[in-house]
């Protein structure tokens, strides 16, 4: 991470941008040389992604050479839905300043962000200069009740939802975290992942720090506590100078709300305002919509926004390179009604479908989607192709995390619990099936089989993203590179594996042409294997495992899951 020029911060702090909280339209002036405008898509779109044909674990991702195989599949009668062949966004954050019902609004905003994490939720508020916290395992509606929210008075709050694989020691790792240090208390909620977490933690422990969790977020609190900088916001700057990777964070003190976004802007963070002047930060604009807050702008990459009784101050966190915003927010993670990185997610996905129809046409009778994430791209495909879109798969929204399978095995049991084919739509038809991505290919093969068993004459898969060949290290839960089917098979080999009559991905160059002049502002590591921030410690994602994000156990339990990083002199940070 680039070194911080502290002299620029001194000048910024001596003349902060201060704005009244009750102003309906706030425009924060930022240092023009370091902070860039939020990026926007353009409506242009074409690229052929090459594949190696070896069926062995011959990696297209340069980092996967470190990975080892450890495939275990216990034979039991329970079906887990953690493994549904999709990447997982691990967190959503909310921050509210200046509303007497801050905790209740935070609760509602977390509801709107529930798709970003379903395993744990928490809210921290301030009353009489004391930070009060309620956290729990489960959905937002399961963690919070009327009585719980009554325990969280005050006009400042931060909240967090997170996804993780299940584990025994979940509760202590549910955010927001609250810590006391010699100058008071601070709460933090974090979306992202720190790639140098282990080395920072080891250094802190060598100096006597005691950790209560196995989450990388706790490192940030320790760095703030030991910082010698003044005032508090400069402690945050000092801490962020030492961490590397992805972070969109909201901090809470007895009188301040602080929002921070990493210099690359990997994960989204937006700012809005309610009619009473309350300032709101959230991971997505859909959270603003629910609580009737007006979207104002993004928190810029490398920016610190401080909200207190004097107004809003905007500071440059540190000099930063080209933004590298996560393209998968537009492909899969965000809700279609959100605006992410300055562009409607719905419009992006619709255009992805149109590009597929233009560049990978096929004679068909009906277009269907794999719900829910493939619906908008399927609508775009159908409109461009002039073929009717119909609901050929019905998704059950009432399936829990696991389900007990009868002793007599039912083929494709997990998929059948979630998706039901509509025979009247599919029987005797040439069907185009649009999905957002293929990760392992296991679910796709089951869906193809399900549709053919319902009587479809032909099944043509169209994927509204390029092939995924690399694991993510910036806050997304993805399998090992060995498990990523596009990392070891060609498109034709994948087609044979899933059993479809044809298969086409969104071409990588078409995606970049659609983004036009903003194409360099996005991270494509999952498609290219080129990482904007090279992991200093590479966590091995073994076959059958998802990344341990700090919820499933002690640090000792994952000691074997790390490899030695390359020497700094050998690291080549990609600009691609």
TrEMBL record:
It catalyses: 5-phospho-beta-D-ribosylamine + L-glutamate + diphosphate = 5-phospho-alpha-D-ribose 1-diphosphate + L-glutamine + H2O. Residues 1-24 have a biased composition (Low complexity). It comes from the Eukaryota. Keywords: Glutamine amidotransferase, Glycosyltransferase, Iron, Iron-sulfur, Metal-binding, Purine biosynthesis, Transferase. Its EC number is 2.4.2.14. Its cofactor is [4Fe-4S] cluster. GO terms for biological process: purine nucleobase biosynthetic process; purine nucleotide biosynthetic process. One of its GO terms (molecular function) is amidophosphoribosyltransferase activity. SUPFAM superfamilies: N-terminal nucleophile aminohydrolases (Ntn hydrolases) (SSF56235), PRTase-like (SSF53271). Residues 1-30 are annotated as: Disordered. The keyword tRNA-binding does not apply. InterPro entries: GATase_2_dom, Ntn_hydrolases_N, PRTase-like, PRTase_dom, PurF, PurF_N. Pathway: Purine metabolism; IMP biosynthesis via de novo pathway; N(1)-(5-phospho-D-ribosyl)glycinamide from 5-phospho-alpha-D-ribose 1-diphosphate: step 1/2. Residues 91-310 form the Glutamine amidotransferase type-2 domain. In the C-terminal section; belongs to the purine/pyrimidine phosphoribosyltransferase family. HAMAP family: PurF. NCBIfam families: purF. This is amidophosphoribosyltransferase.
């Amino acid at each position: 991470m680039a070194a911080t020029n502290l002299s620029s911060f001194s000048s910024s702090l001596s003349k902060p941008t201060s704005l009244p909280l009750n102003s309906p339209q706030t425009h924060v002036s930022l240092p023009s040389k370091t902070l860039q405008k939020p990026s926007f898509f353009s409506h242009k779109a074409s690229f052929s992604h090459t594949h190696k044909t070896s069926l062995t674990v011959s990696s297209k991702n340069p980092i996967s050479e470190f990975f080892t195989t450890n495939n275990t599949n216990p034979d039991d009668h329970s079906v887990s839905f953690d493994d549904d062949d999709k990447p997982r966004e691990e967190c959503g954050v909310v921050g509210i300043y200046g509303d007497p019902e801050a905790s209740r609004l935070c609760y509602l905003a977390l509801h709107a962000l529930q798709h970003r994490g379903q395993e744990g939720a928490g809210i921290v508020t301030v009353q009489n200069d004391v930070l009060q916290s309620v956290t729990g395992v489960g959905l937002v509606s399961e963690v919070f009740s009327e009585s719980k929210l009554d325990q969280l008075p005050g006009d400042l709050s931060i909240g967090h939802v997170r996804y993780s694989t299940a584990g025994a020691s979940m509760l202590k790792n549910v955010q927001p975290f609250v810590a006391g240090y010699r100058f008071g208390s601070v709460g933090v909620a974090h979306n992202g992942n720190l790639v140098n977490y282990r080395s920072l933690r080891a250094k802190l422990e060598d100096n006597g720090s005691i950790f209560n969790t196995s989450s990388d977020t706790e490192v940030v609190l320790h760095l703030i506590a030991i910082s010698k900088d003044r005032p508090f916001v400069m402690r945050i700057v000092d801490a962020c100078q030492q961490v590397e990777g992805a972070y969109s964070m909201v901090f809470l003190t007895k009188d301040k709300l602080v929002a921070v976004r990493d210099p690359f802007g990997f994960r989204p963070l937006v700012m809005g305002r309610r009619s009473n002047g309350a300032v709101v930060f959230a991971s997505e604009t859909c959270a603003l919509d629910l609580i009737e807050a007006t979207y104002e702008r993004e928190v810029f990459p490398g920016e610190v926004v401080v909200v207190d009784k004097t107004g809003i101050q905007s500071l440059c966190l540190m000099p930063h390179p080209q933004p590298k915003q996560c393209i998968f927010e537009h492909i899969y993670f965000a809700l279609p009604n959100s605006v992410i990185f300055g562009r409607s997610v719905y419009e992006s996905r619709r255009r992805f479908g149109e590009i597929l129809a233009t560049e990978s046409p096929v004679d068909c009778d009906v277009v269907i989607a794999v719900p829910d994430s493939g619906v908008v791209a399927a609508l775009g495909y159908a409109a461009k192709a002039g073929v009717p879109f119909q609901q050929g798969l019905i998704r059950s929204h009432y399936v829990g995390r696991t389900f007990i399978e009868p002793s007599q095995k039912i083929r494709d049991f997990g998929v059948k619990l979630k998706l039901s084919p509509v025979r009247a739509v599919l029987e005797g038809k040439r069907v185009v099936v649009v999905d957002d991505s293929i990760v392992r290919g296991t679910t796709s093969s089951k869906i193809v089989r399900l549709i053919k068993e319902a009587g479809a004459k032909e099944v043509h898969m169209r994927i509204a993203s390029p092939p995924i060949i690399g694991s993510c290290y910036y806050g997304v839960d993805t399998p090992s590179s060995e498990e990523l089917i596009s990392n070891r098979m060609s498109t034709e080999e994948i087609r044979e594996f899933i059993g479809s009559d044809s298969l086409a991905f969104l071409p990588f160059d078409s995606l970049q042409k659609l983004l036009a002049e903003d194409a360099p502002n996005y991270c494509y590591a999952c498609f290219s294997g080129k990482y904007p921030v090279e992991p200093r410690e590479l966590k091995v994602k073994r076959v059958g495992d998802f990344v341990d994000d700090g919820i499933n156990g002690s640090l000792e339990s994952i000691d074997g899951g790390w490899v030695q990083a390359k020497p700094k002199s050998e690291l080549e940070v990609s600009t691609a």
